[in-house]
């Protein structure tokens, strides 16, 4: 029995995957395919592990976003995808099963407010990644050497370097003493504070002791950016150790602008390769792309 099926049974939820009479558009199906591929690719590329998440603004309703409920990205299927309201990150229902609505939806990620508040603040943002990628953490945990765009595939970091969100520095009005101080972005005020940390042309916010948030104009862009931010952090750390330097050798503003334009032409080459590589592992299930009704047996 598939792991997601076991989760539903444990939660007392019994249903046929695509509720009778539910009309799923080609646009929404395509979005679901890309969202599942993004979840699986992020895991395959070692950007997320059992934790972390990716989301997409609903292409049919820009006041909503799609992301999975709280499940490891590698295990996401169509029956993990939830439609959330951007206004308050409340679950509307399972995107691909209209029989599971509202409070019946399995528990979501506690940090879904990272996504909702970024979408709320930036109407042009269509996709968001949050991860705990180890390679970027040294740059999130100190502010003497910033993470900058050093390689031509990482213009998402921006020309001024990556800003750092340090939850410890928030006023008590945003993070009261009687709330958990566990570095997690658990509510709208914390998500809003993080969203306000984005600056200039950077699509990235580092999170002290935690990870990163990346915004983008498409799922394919935000996955591409997340991977090459990780690569850039590795290169910068190695170059710093090799050369004994303290000042990073960053791309200038013109180089960031032009490499960002070039990067737009690279997604079509990288994405199908990553999809194929992930598929070849046999670990991931994109039941929407495969055209199979998920979990149609076993009920």
TrEMBL record:
Q: In its UniProt record, which GO terms are filed under biological process?
A: pentose catabolic process
* Keyword hit for Secreted: no
- Signal peptide limits: 1-21
Q: Which domain of life is it from?
A: Eukaryota
A molecular function annotated in GO for this UniProt entry is: aldehyde-lyase activity
Keyword vocabulary terms for this entry: Lyase, Metal-binding, Signal
A GO cellular component annotated for this chain's UniProt record is:
cytosol
Family matches, as Pfam families: Aldolase_II (PF00596)
Domain Class II aldolase/adducin N-terminal as annotated: residue spans: 33-237
| PANTHER family referenced in this protein's UniProt entry, alphabetically | 3-OXO-TETRONATE 4-PHOSPHATE DECARBOXYLASE-RELATED, FUCULOSE PHOSPHATE ALDOLASE
Designated name of the protein: Arad-like aldolase/epimerase
Q: Which organism was this protein described from?
A: Mycena sanguinolenta
